[in-house]
Amino acid sequence: MTSPSQIRRNTIFLALCLVTLSGVIQLAVAVATITLVLVTGIESILGLGPAIFLTAGALAALPAGRLMDRLGRVPVIAGGFVIGAVGCALTALGCLADNAPLVILGFIGVGAMNGGVLLARTAAADMYPPEKKARAISYVLFGALFGAALGPLVFRPLFAGKDFELDTLVIPWFVAAAMALVGLIIALNIRPDPRTIAFELQAADRASGGAELAPAAPLREILRRPGVPSAVIAAIASFAVMAGVMNLTGYIVVGHHHAQADVFTVISLHIVGMYALVLVIGALVDRAGRRPTLLWGLAIMAVSTVMLAFAESIAWMSVSLFLLGLGWNLAYISATAELVTYATPVERGRLVGFTDLVAGLTAAALALLGGLAYSEWGVVAIAVGATLAVVVPALAILTRRAPTVAPEPAS
Q1: Which of 78-82, 219-223, 284-288, 340-344 has the highest mean pLDDT?
Q2: At what angle do helices 314-341 and 262-275 cross, to 10 degrees?
Q3: In a domain? residue 406
Q4: How many CB atoms lie within 10 A of CB 98?
Q5: Based on the structure, what is the number of domains in the chain?
Q6: Residues near 20 by Cβ (< 8 Å), separated by ≥ 6?
Q7: Which residue among 31, 84, 236, 410 is least packed, with the fewest CB closer than 10 Å?
Q8: CATH code of 105's domain
Q9: Domain membership flag for residue 404
Q10: Can you tell me the distance from the alpha carbon of 318 to that of 31, in angstroms, rounded to the nearest whole number?
Protein backbone atom coordinates (compact mmCIF):
# COMPACT_ATOMS: atom_id res chain seq x y z
CA MET A 1 0.00 0.00 0.00
CA THR A 2 1.29 3.43 -0.90
CA SER A 3 2.30 5.45 2.13
CA PRO A 4 1.12 9.02 2.87
CA SER A 5 4.69 10.25 2.41
CA GLN A 6 4.78 8.80 -1.11
CA ILE A 7 1.50 10.53 -1.94
CA ARG A 8 2.84 13.84 -0.63
CA ARG A 9 6.03 13.35 -2.65
CA ASN A 10 4.06 12.62 -5.81
CA THR A 11 1.87 15.66 -5.20
CA ILE A 12 4.95 17.88 -4.92
CA PHE A 13 6.45 16.50 -8.13
CA LEU A 14 3.16 16.93 -10.00
CA ALA A 15 3.08 20.55 -8.79
CA LEU A 16 6.66 21.03 -10.02
CA CYS A 17 5.57 19.74 -13.43
CA LEU A 18 3.04 22.57 -13.50
CA VAL A 19 5.77 25.04 -12.49
CA THR A 20 7.82 24.23 -15.58
CA LEU A 21 4.80 23.98 -17.86
CA SER A 22 3.51 27.37 -16.72
CA GLY A 23 6.90 28.97 -17.32
CA VAL A 24 7.06 27.67 -20.90
CA ILE A 25 3.44 28.51 -21.66
CA GLN A 26 3.95 32.11 -20.54
CA LEU A 27 6.37 32.60 -23.41
CA ALA A 28 3.89 31.10 -25.88
CA VAL A 29 1.06 33.26 -24.56
CA ALA A 30 3.15 36.43 -24.61
CA VAL A 31 4.67 36.12 -28.08
CA ALA A 32 2.73 33.54 -30.14
CA THR A 33 0.48 36.14 -31.78
CA ILE A 34 3.31 38.42 -32.82
CA THR A 35 5.72 35.61 -33.72
CA LEU A 36 3.49 34.32 -36.49
CA VAL A 37 2.75 37.82 -37.74
CA LEU A 38 6.49 38.55 -37.96
CA VAL A 39 7.34 35.31 -39.73
CA THR A 40 4.51 35.64 -42.27
CA GLY A 41 4.12 39.42 -42.52
CA ILE A 42 0.32 39.08 -42.41
CA GLU A 43 -1.27 41.04 -39.57
CA SER A 44 -4.82 39.74 -40.13
CA ILE A 45 -3.81 36.25 -38.92
CA LEU A 46 -2.74 37.43 -35.46
CA GLY A 47 -5.19 34.96 -33.90
CA LEU A 48 -3.80 32.03 -35.88
CA GLY A 49 -0.77 31.45 -33.64
CA PRO A 50 -2.83 30.92 -30.47
CA ALA A 51 -5.38 28.95 -32.50
CA ILE A 52 -2.69 26.50 -33.65
CA PHE A 53 -1.36 26.20 -30.13
CA LEU A 54 -4.80 25.63 -28.60
CA THR A 55 -5.97 23.24 -31.33
CA ALA A 56 -2.87 21.10 -30.93
CA GLY A 57 -3.43 20.95 -27.17
CA ALA A 58 -7.07 20.03 -27.68
CA LEU A 59 -6.37 17.30 -30.21
CA ALA A 60 -3.67 15.85 -27.96
CA ALA A 61 -5.88 15.80 -24.86
CA LEU A 62 -8.25 12.96 -25.76
CA PRO A 63 -5.65 10.42 -26.95
CA ALA A 64 -3.43 11.46 -24.03
CA GLY A 65 -6.31 10.81 -21.65
CA ARG A 66 -6.98 7.39 -23.16
CA LEU A 67 -3.28 6.52 -22.91
CA MET A 68 -3.34 7.60 -19.27
CA ASP A 69 -6.16 5.14 -18.59
CA ARG A 70 -4.25 2.31 -20.31
CA LEU A 71 -0.58 2.96 -19.52
CA GLY A 72 -0.61 5.19 -16.46
CA ARG A 73 -0.25 8.91 -15.79
CA VAL A 74 3.54 9.29 -15.73
CA PRO A 75 4.34 8.09 -19.30
CA VAL A 76 1.89 10.61 -20.75
CA ILE A 77 3.14 13.54 -18.66
CA ALA A 78 6.77 12.71 -19.46
CA GLY A 79 5.99 12.27 -23.16
CA GLY A 80 4.27 15.64 -23.18
CA PHE A 81 7.44 17.35 -21.98
CA VAL A 82 9.51 15.60 -24.67
CA ILE A 83 7.16 16.80 -27.40
CA GLY A 84 7.17 20.30 -25.89
CA ALA A 85 10.97 20.49 -25.83
CA VAL A 86 11.09 19.53 -29.51
CA GLY A 87 8.36 22.07 -30.29
CA CYS A 88 10.19 24.91 -28.56
CA ALA A 89 13.42 24.05 -30.40
CA LEU A 90 11.62 23.96 -33.76
CA THR A 91 10.06 27.37 -33.05
CA ALA A 92 13.49 28.79 -32.21
CA LEU A 93 14.92 27.39 -35.46
CA GLY A 94 11.95 28.76 -37.39
CA CYS A 95 12.58 32.23 -35.98
CA LEU A 96 16.28 31.93 -36.78
CA ALA A 97 15.61 30.87 -40.38
CA ASP A 98 12.51 33.07 -40.85
CA ASN A 99 10.62 29.88 -41.72
CA ALA A 100 6.86 29.85 -41.07
CA PRO A 101 6.36 26.04 -41.42
CA LEU A 102 8.97 25.38 -38.71
CA VAL A 103 7.33 27.90 -36.40
CA ILE A 104 3.93 26.30 -36.97
CA LEU A 105 5.31 22.82 -36.28
CA GLY A 106 6.86 24.20 -33.12
CA PHE A 107 3.55 25.69 -31.98
CA ILE A 108 1.91 22.30 -32.54
CA GLY A 109 4.50 20.63 -30.31
CA VAL A 110 4.16 23.21 -27.53
CA GLY A 111 0.37 22.94 -27.69
CA ALA A 112 0.50 19.14 -27.54
CA MET A 113 2.71 19.39 -24.46
CA ASN A 114 0.16 21.61 -22.77
CA GLY A 115 -2.66 19.22 -23.60
CA GLY A 116 -0.83 16.24 -22.14
CA VAL A 117 0.82 17.75 -19.08
CA LEU A 118 -2.34 19.55 -17.91
CA LEU A 119 -3.85 16.12 -17.35
CA ALA A 120 -1.62 16.03 -14.27
CA ARG A 121 -4.67 17.27 -12.39
CA THR A 122 -6.25 13.86 -13.08
CA ALA A 123 -3.20 12.25 -11.53
CA ALA A 124 -3.63 14.44 -8.45
CA ALA A 125 -7.25 13.38 -8.03
CA ASP A 126 -6.25 9.71 -8.31
CA MET A 127 -4.38 9.80 -5.01
CA TYR A 128 -7.10 11.25 -2.73
CA PRO A 129 -10.62 10.24 -1.61
CA PRO A 130 -13.70 11.91 -3.18
CA GLU A 131 -14.19 14.45 -0.40
CA LYS A 132 -10.65 15.78 -0.93
CA LYS A 133 -10.37 15.70 -4.71
CA ALA A 134 -10.87 19.45 -5.23
CA ARG A 135 -8.12 20.15 -2.72
CA ALA A 136 -5.89 17.56 -4.37
CA ILE A 137 -6.33 19.25 -7.73
CA SER A 138 -5.62 22.62 -6.12
CA TYR A 139 -2.36 21.33 -4.59
CA VAL A 140 -1.00 20.49 -8.03
CA LEU A 141 -2.34 23.58 -9.79
CA PHE A 142 -0.68 25.69 -7.08
CA GLY A 143 2.63 24.89 -8.74
CA ALA A 144 1.64 27.01 -11.72
CA LEU A 145 1.71 30.06 -9.42
CA PHE A 146 5.47 29.70 -9.16
CA GLY A 147 5.58 29.35 -12.93
CA ALA A 148 3.97 32.80 -13.04
CA ALA A 149 7.06 34.16 -11.32
CA LEU A 150 9.42 31.95 -13.29
CA GLY A 151 8.28 33.28 -16.68
CA PRO A 152 9.15 36.95 -16.13
CA LEU A 153 12.26 36.04 -14.15
CA VAL A 154 13.62 34.04 -17.08
CA PHE A 155 12.17 35.73 -20.16
CA ARG A 156 11.76 39.42 -19.36
CA PRO A 157 15.55 40.07 -19.21
CA LEU A 158 15.89 38.38 -22.61
CA PHE A 159 13.59 40.99 -24.17
CA ALA A 160 14.68 44.04 -22.17
CA GLY A 161 16.02 46.87 -24.31
CA LYS A 162 15.60 44.97 -27.59
CA ASP A 163 13.45 45.66 -30.62
CA PHE A 164 10.85 42.98 -31.16
CA GLU A 165 12.19 41.05 -34.15
CA LEU A 166 12.51 37.38 -35.05
CA ASP A 167 16.16 37.27 -33.98
CA THR A 168 15.11 38.39 -30.51
CA LEU A 169 12.91 35.29 -30.15
CA VAL A 170 15.53 32.63 -30.88
CA ILE A 171 17.22 32.41 -27.47
CA PRO A 172 13.97 32.59 -25.44
CA TRP A 173 12.52 29.64 -27.35
CA PHE A 174 15.68 27.58 -26.82
CA VAL A 175 15.53 28.43 -23.11
CA ALA A 176 11.92 27.24 -23.08
CA ALA A 177 13.05 23.93 -24.62
CA ALA A 178 15.53 23.50 -21.76
CA MET A 179 12.77 24.20 -19.24
CA ALA A 180 10.62 21.47 -20.82
CA LEU A 181 13.49 18.99 -20.38
CA VAL A 182 13.64 19.89 -16.70
CA GLY A 183 9.94 19.05 -16.56
CA LEU A 184 10.70 15.66 -18.11
CA ILE A 185 13.21 14.85 -15.36
CA ILE A 186 10.70 15.83 -12.68
CA ALA A 187 7.93 13.72 -14.24
CA LEU A 188 10.11 10.61 -14.35
CA ASN A 189 10.57 10.87 -10.57
CA ILE A 190 6.84 10.45 -9.88
CA ARG A 191 6.37 6.96 -8.43
CA PRO A 192 4.39 4.93 -7.89
CA ASP A 193 2.20 5.99 -10.78
CA PRO A 194 -0.88 7.84 -9.45
CA ARG A 195 -3.14 5.42 -11.35
CA THR A 196 -1.72 2.61 -9.21
CA ILE A 197 -2.69 4.56 -6.09
CA ALA A 198 -6.21 5.01 -7.50
CA PHE A 199 -6.53 1.25 -7.90
CA GLU A 200 -5.37 0.79 -4.30
CA LEU A 201 -8.03 3.20 -3.06
CA GLN A 202 -10.63 1.37 -5.14
CA ALA A 203 -9.53 -1.98 -3.70
CA ALA A 204 -9.73 -0.59 -0.16
CA ASP A 205 -13.25 0.64 -0.89
CA ARG A 206 -14.25 -2.84 -2.13
CA ALA A 207 -12.78 -4.44 0.97
CA SER A 208 -14.97 -2.21 3.14
CA GLY A 209 -18.12 -3.12 1.23
CA GLY A 210 -17.92 -0.70 -1.70
CA ALA A 211 -18.88 -1.44 -5.28
CA GLU A 212 -16.80 -3.68 -7.52
CA LEU A 213 -14.60 -1.97 -10.08
CA ALA A 214 -16.43 -2.24 -13.41
CA PRO A 215 -14.84 -1.99 -16.85
CA ALA A 216 -14.70 1.48 -18.37
CA ALA A 217 -18.09 2.57 -19.66
CA PRO A 218 -18.47 4.11 -23.13
CA LEU A 219 -17.80 7.83 -23.13
CA ARG A 220 -21.34 8.65 -24.24
CA GLU A 221 -22.67 6.81 -21.17
CA ILE A 222 -20.29 8.63 -18.83
CA LEU A 223 -21.39 11.98 -20.27
CA ARG A 224 -25.03 11.23 -19.40
CA ARG A 225 -24.39 10.65 -15.69
CA PRO A 226 -26.10 13.22 -13.40
CA GLY A 227 -23.79 16.13 -12.71
CA VAL A 228 -21.44 15.44 -15.61
CA PRO A 229 -23.16 17.61 -18.30
CA SER A 230 -23.05 20.76 -16.15
CA ALA A 231 -19.43 20.10 -15.22
CA VAL A 232 -18.49 19.62 -18.87
CA ILE A 233 -20.26 22.83 -19.89
CA ALA A 234 -18.53 24.81 -17.13
CA ALA A 235 -15.11 23.35 -17.92
CA ILE A 236 -15.47 24.12 -21.62
CA ALA A 237 -16.76 27.66 -21.13
CA SER A 238 -14.27 28.65 -18.44
CA PHE A 239 -11.20 27.27 -20.21
CA ALA A 240 -12.19 28.43 -23.69
CA VAL A 241 -12.82 32.04 -22.66
CA MET A 242 -9.82 32.20 -20.35
CA ALA A 243 -7.42 30.74 -22.92
CA GLY A 244 -8.92 32.60 -25.86
CA VAL A 245 -8.62 36.00 -24.17
CA MET A 246 -5.24 35.23 -22.58
CA ASN A 247 -3.70 34.26 -25.91
CA LEU A 248 -4.78 37.55 -27.49
CA THR A 249 -3.53 39.64 -24.57
CA GLY A 250 -0.06 40.14 -26.02
CA TYR A 251 -1.42 41.83 -29.11
CA ILE A 252 -3.97 43.85 -27.12
CA VAL A 253 -1.23 45.22 -24.85
CA VAL A 254 0.93 46.21 -27.82
CA GLY A 255 -2.17 47.63 -29.53
CA HIS A 256 -2.58 50.02 -26.59
CA HIS A 257 0.98 51.27 -27.36
CA HIS A 258 2.70 49.55 -24.45
CA ALA A 259 6.12 47.88 -24.65
CA GLN A 260 6.33 44.19 -25.48
CA ALA A 261 8.03 43.53 -22.13
CA ASP A 262 4.88 44.85 -20.39
CA VAL A 263 2.99 41.82 -21.70
CA PHE A 264 4.76 39.67 -19.12
CA THR A 265 3.46 41.89 -16.31
CA VAL A 266 -0.15 41.45 -17.42
CA ILE A 267 0.20 37.73 -18.09
CA SER A 268 1.98 37.16 -14.78
CA LEU A 269 -0.83 38.79 -12.82
CA HIS A 270 -3.33 36.78 -14.83
CA ILE A 271 -1.56 33.58 -13.82
CA VAL A 272 -1.42 34.82 -10.22
CA GLY A 273 -5.21 35.17 -10.43
CA MET A 274 -5.42 31.65 -11.80
CA TYR A 275 -3.35 30.05 -9.06
CA ALA A 276 -2.52 32.31 -6.07
CA LEU A 277 -5.69 31.41 -4.14
CA VAL A 278 -5.93 27.90 -5.49
CA LEU A 279 -5.38 26.20 -2.12
CA VAL A 280 -8.11 28.29 -0.52
CA ILE A 281 -10.42 27.72 -3.47
CA GLY A 282 -9.84 23.96 -3.44
CA ALA A 283 -10.99 23.78 0.18
CA LEU A 284 -13.88 26.17 -0.55
CA VAL A 285 -15.11 24.00 -3.41
CA ASP A 286 -15.13 20.89 -1.20
CA ARG A 287 -17.06 22.72 1.52
CA ALA A 288 -19.45 25.01 -0.40
CA GLY A 289 -20.30 22.57 -3.16
CA ARG A 290 -19.11 22.35 -6.73
CA ARG A 291 -22.19 23.62 -8.56
CA PRO A 292 -22.38 26.98 -6.68
CA THR A 293 -18.66 27.63 -6.98
CA LEU A 294 -18.51 26.94 -10.69
CA LEU A 295 -21.33 29.45 -11.20
CA TRP A 296 -19.50 32.02 -9.06
CA GLY A 297 -16.44 31.46 -11.19
CA LEU A 298 -18.29 32.08 -14.44
CA ALA A 299 -19.82 35.26 -12.96
CA ILE A 300 -16.39 36.63 -12.01
CA MET A 301 -15.14 35.87 -15.52
CA ALA A 302 -18.04 37.85 -17.00
CA VAL A 303 -17.07 40.88 -14.87
CA SER A 304 -13.47 40.62 -16.06
CA THR A 305 -14.36 40.43 -19.76
CA VAL A 306 -16.64 43.45 -19.48
CA MET A 307 -13.73 45.37 -17.90
CA LEU A 308 -11.53 44.47 -20.86
CA ALA A 309 -13.58 46.80 -23.07
CA PHE A 310 -12.54 49.82 -21.00
CA ALA A 311 -9.09 48.91 -19.66
CA GLU A 312 -6.18 50.54 -21.48
CA SER A 313 -3.49 51.01 -18.85
CA ILE A 314 -1.24 48.16 -17.77
CA ALA A 315 -2.71 48.40 -14.27
CA TRP A 316 -6.34 48.02 -15.34
CA MET A 317 -5.58 45.35 -17.92
CA SER A 318 -3.77 43.48 -15.17
CA VAL A 319 -6.84 43.74 -12.90
CA SER A 320 -9.07 42.48 -15.70
CA LEU A 321 -6.81 39.52 -16.46
CA PHE A 322 -6.36 38.80 -12.74
CA LEU A 323 -10.13 38.47 -12.33
CA LEU A 324 -10.32 36.36 -15.46
CA GLY A 325 -7.83 33.96 -13.91
CA LEU A 326 -9.59 33.96 -10.53
CA GLY A 327 -12.97 33.18 -12.09
CA TRP A 328 -11.42 30.41 -14.17
CA ASN A 329 -9.85 28.99 -11.01
CA LEU A 330 -13.21 28.68 -9.26
CA ALA A 331 -15.09 27.30 -12.24
CA TYR A 332 -12.40 24.95 -13.49
CA ILE A 333 -11.50 23.31 -10.17
CA SER A 334 -15.19 22.82 -9.41
CA ALA A 335 -15.87 21.30 -12.82
CA THR A 336 -12.80 19.05 -12.77
CA ALA A 337 -13.60 17.78 -9.27
CA GLU A 338 -17.08 16.86 -10.50
CA LEU A 339 -15.72 15.05 -13.54
CA VAL A 340 -13.19 12.91 -11.66
CA THR A 341 -15.72 12.07 -8.94
CA TYR A 342 -18.22 10.68 -11.43
CA ALA A 343 -15.65 8.51 -13.23
CA THR A 344 -13.62 5.47 -12.19
CA PRO A 345 -9.79 5.29 -12.40
CA VAL A 346 -10.06 3.71 -15.86
CA GLU A 347 -12.51 6.37 -17.10
CA ARG A 348 -11.07 9.62 -15.74
CA GLY A 349 -8.44 10.15 -18.40
CA ARG A 350 -10.86 9.84 -21.30
CA LEU A 351 -13.55 11.98 -19.65
CA VAL A 352 -11.17 14.79 -18.73
CA GLY A 353 -9.35 14.39 -22.04
CA PHE A 354 -12.61 14.68 -23.99
CA THR A 355 -13.57 17.79 -22.04
CA ASP A 356 -10.14 19.29 -22.71
CA LEU A 357 -10.50 18.42 -26.40
CA VAL A 358 -13.76 20.33 -26.77
CA ALA A 359 -12.57 23.17 -24.52
CA GLY A 360 -9.32 23.56 -26.44
CA LEU A 361 -11.01 23.55 -29.85
CA THR A 362 -13.51 26.12 -28.59
CA ALA A 363 -10.68 28.26 -27.23
CA ALA A 364 -8.87 28.01 -30.57
CA ALA A 365 -12.01 29.13 -32.40
CA LEU A 366 -12.46 32.04 -29.99
CA ALA A 367 -8.81 33.08 -30.40
CA LEU A 368 -9.04 32.92 -34.20
CA LEU A 369 -12.37 34.74 -34.37
CA GLY A 370 -11.21 37.16 -31.69
CA GLY A 371 -8.14 38.02 -33.73
CA LEU A 372 -10.26 38.74 -36.79
CA ALA A 373 -12.75 40.75 -34.71
CA TYR A 374 -9.94 42.75 -33.11
CA SER A 375 -8.52 43.61 -36.54
CA GLU A 376 -11.92 44.88 -37.68
CA TRP A 377 -13.56 46.38 -34.59
CA GLY A 378 -11.01 46.52 -31.79
CA VAL A 379 -10.93 45.17 -28.27
CA VAL A 380 -14.63 45.87 -27.56
CA ALA A 381 -15.58 43.07 -29.94
CA ILE A 382 -13.43 40.63 -27.98
CA ALA A 383 -14.94 41.80 -24.68
CA VAL A 384 -18.54 41.41 -25.88
CA GLY A 385 -17.95 37.99 -27.43
CA ALA A 386 -16.09 36.66 -24.39
CA THR A 387 -18.78 37.91 -22.00
CA LEU A 388 -21.52 36.14 -23.96
CA ALA A 389 -19.41 32.99 -24.04
CA VAL A 390 -19.49 32.71 -20.23
CA VAL A 391 -22.95 34.15 -19.50
CA VAL A 392 -24.86 31.86 -21.86
CA PRO A 393 -23.35 28.62 -20.45
CA ALA A 394 -23.93 29.86 -16.89
CA LEU A 395 -27.62 30.36 -17.67
CA ALA A 396 -27.76 26.89 -19.24
CA ILE A 397 -26.31 25.35 -16.06
CA LEU A 398 -28.81 27.25 -13.91
CA THR A 399 -31.69 25.73 -15.87
CA ARG A 400 -30.43 22.18 -15.26
CA ARG A 401 -31.59 20.41 -12.12
CA ALA A 402 -28.78 19.67 -9.71
CA PRO A 403 -28.30 15.94 -8.97
CA THR A 404 -29.76 15.02 -5.58
CA VAL A 405 -27.79 11.81 -5.21
CA ALA A 406 -24.22 11.26 -6.33
CA PRO A 407 -23.98 8.59 -9.03
CA GLU A 408 -22.10 5.35 -8.51
CA PRO A 409 -19.91 5.07 -11.59
CA ALA A 410 -18.06 2.02 -10.34
CA SER A 411 -21.10 -0.16 -9.76
Answers
A1: 78-82
A2: 30
A3: no
A4: 14
A5: 1
A6: 81, 147, 150, 179, 180, 182, 183, 186
A7: 410
A8: 1.20.1250.20
A9: no
A10: 17
